[in-house]
């Protein structure tokens, strides 16, 4: 109902309760009692969302360039390294529902990176030890990491049995949104709620269990002919 104000993904750990309260104050006279109480329930959900103190882990992710190979990478790992590992290498491996802080660090003096993290929306905690800019207070999935900057992000990796999302175990991308960087080779993956030996989950039970390489992005979830009647 309130998808315009409070998209479902916002419930995934970001605290917009304060903003939501402002909306409520502004709209209270215009809304029915039922609408107001439903909105209050939404706010309560937001307030219960993840907090910095809930973080189980602080991870450091360095966005950088190897001056010998001229290849960009995340934590010294390139996408080629991940391919060579049979898609088993991951840059992070939170459990389902974990709250984490990721510190994104750019020590270089000459490059900036708009870093995009799939699956989650995050909250920007700080930029170079200071409060984030006003325009980055909302739910974000790309963070601008300027020259010599260090940014702290708070995020939650899905929730168990969340009716809005289903179970979000799997592998997800993290990459620079500068395509030249991404393609050479600033792209990585992280797993959520998986062990290295786990197959990426597929809720479609019609898929025959023919996969033998559980970590391969295509073979683990192969295409199949859907011959069921329309
Ligand atoms: Cu970049």
Describe the structure.
- With 230 residues, the protein is α+β, with helices and mostly antiparallel strands.
- It folds into two domains: 8-47, no CATH class; 52-192, Sandwich (Immunoglobulin-like).
- It has four helices and nine strands.
- The strands form two sheets. Strands 2-1-3-7-5 form a five-stranded mixed sheet, with no helix packed on it. Strands 6-4-8-9 form a four-stranded antiparallel sheet.
- A hairpin with a 4-residue loop joins β1 and β2 (71-74).
- α1 runs antiparallel to α2.
- The relative contact order is 0.16.
- Bound molecules: copper (II) ion.
- Residues 72, 113, 176, 178, 181, 186 line the site of copper (II) ion.
Largest sheet at a glance?
5 strands, mixed
State the CATH topology of the largest domain.
Immunoglobulin-like
Uncertain stretches of 5 or more adjacent residues: 1-15, 202-211
SSE pattern: HHEEHEEEEEEHE
Strand content range: 15-25%
Gross geometry: globular
* Structural domain tally: 2
Structural class: alpha+beta
Q: Which ions and ligands are bound to the chains?
A: copper (II) ion
Strand order of the largest sheet: 2-1-3-7-5
* Span between termini: 32 Å
Average pLDDT over all residues: 80
| CATH architectural label of the largest domain | Sandwich
Summarize the structure.
With 230 residues, the protein is of the alpha+beta class. Helix content is 16%, strand content 24%.
Structural key phrases:
four-stranded antiparallel sheet; binds copper (II) ion; 4 helices; 230 residues; five-stranded mixed sheet; disordered N terminus; alpha+beta; Immunoglobulin-like
């Amino acid at each position: 109902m309130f998808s315009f104000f409070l998209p479902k993904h916002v419930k995934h750990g970001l605290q917009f309760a304060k903003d939501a309260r402002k909306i409520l104050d502004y709209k209270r006279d215009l809304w029915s009692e039922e609408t107001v109480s439903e909105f209050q329930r939404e706010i309560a959900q937001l307030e219960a969302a993840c907090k910095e103190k809930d973080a189980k882990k602080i991870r450091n992710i360095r966005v950088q360039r190897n001056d010998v190979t001229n290849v960009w990478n995340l934590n010294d790992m390139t996408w080629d390294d991940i391919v060579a590992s049979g898609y088993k290498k991951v840059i992070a491996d939170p459990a389902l529902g974990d709250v984490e802080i990721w510190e994104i660090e750019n020590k270089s003096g000459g490059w900036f990176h708009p870093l995009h993290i799939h699956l989650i929306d995050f909250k920007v905690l700080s930029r170079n030890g200071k409060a984030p800019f006003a325009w980055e207070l909302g739910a974000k999935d790309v963070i601008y990491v300027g020259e010599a900057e260090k940014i702290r992000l708070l995020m939650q990796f899905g929730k168990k049995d969340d009716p809005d999302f289903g179970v979000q175990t799997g592998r997800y991308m993290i990459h620079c949104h500068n395509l030249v960087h991404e393609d050479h080779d600033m792209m990585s993956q992280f797993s959520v709620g998986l062990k290295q030996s786990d197959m990426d989950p597929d809720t479609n039970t019609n898929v025959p269990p023919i996969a033998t390489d559980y970590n391969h992005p295509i073979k683990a979830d192969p295409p199949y002919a859907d011959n069921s009647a329309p």
